[in-house]
């Protein structure tokens, strides 16, 4: 799975002019399932998102996680994170999971996030969304969870 995390002061997602999800301070989590991804990659990605120390402590160092600071998560599906731009000027999205599988893994990720964290809002899978955010820092972290190596 691929993700881009943005530390935000606030963020919201609108569909057809209506807010469908919003948070105050926390993380905007753009997420994309790739072909071959499973719940295991979603679980590892979520664990990393929740524990990644990218919020400032009292000394101003990035030493606290979203859980430490009580921030929200705004989880938005974004298949374009799987874009392959090596072949020309039009990106290819063949590495993105098929829509049904992408939605299944996105829904799984959101359900696991809601079970593990008190403030989780979402966008709407496959919708034409408008994402509004106030970056904090800015701090933007790309992440990729490759399939785990088979046990020896």
Structure keywords:
single chain, 152 residues, alpha/beta, D-tyrosyl-trna(Tyr) Deacylase, Chain: A, 6-stranded mixed sheet, two-stranded antiparallel sheet, 3 helices, 23% helix
What is the compact description of this entry?
By secondary structure, the protein is of the alpha/beta class. It is built from 3 helices and 8 strands; from the N terminus they run E-E-E-H-E-E-H-E-H-E-E.
Written overview of the protein:
It is a single chain. The chain is built from three helices and eight strands, in the order βββαββαβαββ. The strands form two sheets. Strands 1, 2, 3, 6, 7 and 8 form a six-stranded mixed sheet that branches. With 152 residues, the protein is of the alpha/beta class. It has a single domain, classed as D-tyrosyl-trna(Tyr) Deacylase, Chain: A (3-Layer(bba) Sandwich). The radius of gyration is 15 Å and the shape is globular. The model has no long low-confidence stretch (mean pLDDT 96).
Write the layout of secondary structure elements.
Elements (H helix, E strand, L loop, with lengths): L1 E14 L2 E6 L2 E7 L6 H13 L3 E2 L5 E3 L1 H4 L2 E6 L21 H18 L3 E3 L6 E16 L8
Parallel strand pairs: 3-6, 6-7
Antiparallel strand pairs: 1-2, 1-3, 1-8, 4-5
């Amino acid at each position: 799975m691929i993700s881009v995390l943005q530390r935000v002061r606030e963020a919201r997602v609108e569909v057809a002019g209506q807010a469908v999800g919003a948070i105050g301070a926390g993380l905007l989590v753009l997420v994309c399932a790739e072909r071959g991804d499973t719940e295991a990659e979603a679980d590892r990605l979520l664990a990393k998102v929740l524990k990644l120390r990218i919020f400032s402590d009292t000394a101003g160092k990035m030493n606290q996680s979203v859980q430490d600071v009580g921030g929200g998560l705004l989880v938005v599906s974004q298949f374009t994170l799987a874009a392959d731009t090596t072949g020309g000027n039009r990106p290819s999205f063949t590495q993105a999971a098929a829509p049904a599988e992408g939605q299944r893994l996105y829904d799984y990720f959101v359900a696991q996030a809601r079970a593990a964290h008190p403030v989780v809002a979402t966008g709407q899978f496959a919708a034409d969304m408008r994402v509004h955010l106030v970056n904090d820092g800015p701090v933007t972290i790309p992440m990729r969870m490759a399939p785990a190596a088979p046990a020896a």
